[in-house]
TrEMBL record, chains A, B:
The keyword Cell membrane applies. GO terms for cellular component: plasma membrane. It comes from the Eukaryota. Its main location: membrane. Keywords: Cell membrane, Membrane, Transmembrane, Transmembrane helix. The gene is LOC106755650. It comes from Vigna radiata var. radiata (Mung bean). It is a multi-pass membrane protein. The keyword Cell membrane applies. Pfam families: CASP_dom (PF04535). The chain crosses the membrane at residues 78-105, 126-149. Homodimer and heterodimers. It is found in: Cell membrane. The lineage of its organism: Eukaryota, Viridiplantae, Streptophyta, Embryophyta, Tracheophyta. InterPro entries: CASP_dom, CASPL-5. This is CASP-like protein.
Amino acid sequence: MDEVPGSLGTSASFSLRMGQTMFSSASLLFMSFGVEFYSYTAFCYLVTIMGLVIPWSFTLALVDGYSVLLKCPIRQPGILLIIVVGDWVLSTLTLAAASSTASVVDLLLNTHGSFCPPKLCSRYRISAIMAFLSWLLSLASSLFNLWLLPSL
Amino acid sequence: MDEVPGSLGTSASFSLRMGQTMFSSASLLFMSFGVEFYSYTAFCYLVTIMGLVIPWSFTLALVDGYSVLLKCPIRQPGILLIIVVGDWVLSTLTLAAASSTASVVDLLLNTHGSFCPPKLCSRYRISAIMAFLSWLLSLASSLFNLWLLPSL
């Protein structure tokens, strides 16, 4: 059984999960501090998805940290399959949320320049960028675990 | 070597590819008939991506039809890997385009009711729905081919 760097129970996976948690939290915070997010469907959707991604990534970060400390990685194919599918579903939802947010921010900035206070809009933009970064990390986790799956 | 229904060179795969081509073309047509699409970044992005998806799906539909008629499916792992990766990249891009378009249409309809003529907006909405359907079929193709890949 090979050790795939980045798969469940390695320190690389722990870093990926911490990165996901960090970027999703940043995305959620930047979105929620401007209190007007609930007037746009795309922004509400982003907040909902980030509220799902944060506990998922944080739990898996804890599992990884535990596995690294005890030097006893989890290697049940069933659990790994659930994690791969969960990661994949969440990364798809994150991508959809991030691109919706990005396109709405772009529309608000360009077409209705006066409609969006510049301070709020730059916050929304940072939030969309953070969501994209969270998507990339989540995708990386999913691919690394998928790579490990056939060798179990 | 098992025959996975929906994988490259089967009649199910041919139907999937034809569906993708049809839905992408419908999405492109509904978007382009309202001539104002170039004023929104999200709509331009959708048109670009659909312009990539249509030739890709159509070519693979031809390959599938050829394989079915000659009863000689292509089974090189290298080619299959390229198709899986290509399908996956295109389905990700399609999802991003579809959700961007959907969120912009939603914003135009709700917040700026007077800004968007109802006839144009319902066209944009149909275009977004077609793009989502094209994403689903493209994802199905990618998963079926991925399922076949380890058995080669």
